[in-house]
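User: Hi! I'm working on a homework problem where we have to compare a predicted structure to a textbook description. Could you give me the structure for the chain below?
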Amino acid sequence: MNILIIKLGAIGDVLRTTGTLKGLDKKYGNPKIYWITLQNALPLLANNPLIFKTITLEKWKEIEDIDFDLVISLDDEVEACSIATLAKKGKIVGAYLDNDGKRTYTKSEWFDMSLLGGLDRDELKKANKKTFQEHMANLLGIDKKEMEPILILPDRELEYQKKFMEENSLKEGEFLVGINTGAGGRWQYKKLGEEKTAALINSIYENYRYKCILLGGGEERERNSRIASMIKVPFIDAGTNHSLMEFASIIGLCSVLVTSDSLALHIGTALKKKVVAFFGPTSMSEIDLFGRGKKIAPEMTCLVCYKRTCDFNPACMHLITVDQLVSAIKEVS
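Assistant: Happy to help. Predicted structure tokens:
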């Protein structure tokens, strides 16, 4: 059996979608699963034994002559819907183009909350209490118990881990708390403030003597530099000039990861890390920590707004306290 998954981005969403693979494999009996994605997401899918072939969006015509028994189209962009429509298939689940060339989707609660949904999609998303995994299990008819994301660190990244440990004088099994400061460029209010982030690192060490690793990508270079200048206790600055998988390998060293709703969160869950995740403008209900973490959000009626700017003062991230986060770290440790 041939299955085509079309999931292009965002990168974190691509990673969490790997949670469907075990269920599909079990339901259809070792199918050949092809996956179309963007170039920057390919490393997350590499070495996955449940994926037969990964293809970038630009090269999808390499597989256009394959007869797919099932096409799973999980992005609502026109390009993705077009490929889902053009691919030879027996059945389609998800988004595609109708006979008039308009984007539409097979009926599901998940797509009801998407940009293709009705005028009530924002209210549905706000009221939603199901995790992404539950929605995918319902959409695809697979076991929701088999839905943990899969990320395999190759040998090169495992060597990078060892080098990072040596350079920072870390011991095997040392308790480390990763503090991810980024949240992508779309929703700035997913981030903790810089002063609060520094205060968190100070408090973690002062209370429990846990050493923290300051994490971030290229977008956080200046931000992390300012945070580092306010930290008064021993910590490790991981830097921001890492490849995607090098970043994942550093997260792999963490005993606990503290993060916003971001790529780092999905990497942490895929690597089976204990996670303390904080939320504001995006949905806490959609995220499954698989019994290995704690979710924190302030008491506000405007949560899950998905707004890029905020008219409230104090905003949601201002109401999450250092004490809440420190207590959560101790709770999951």
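For your comparison, note the following. The mean pLDDT is 94. The CA atoms of residues 6 and 73 lie 5 Å apart. Good luck with the assignment!
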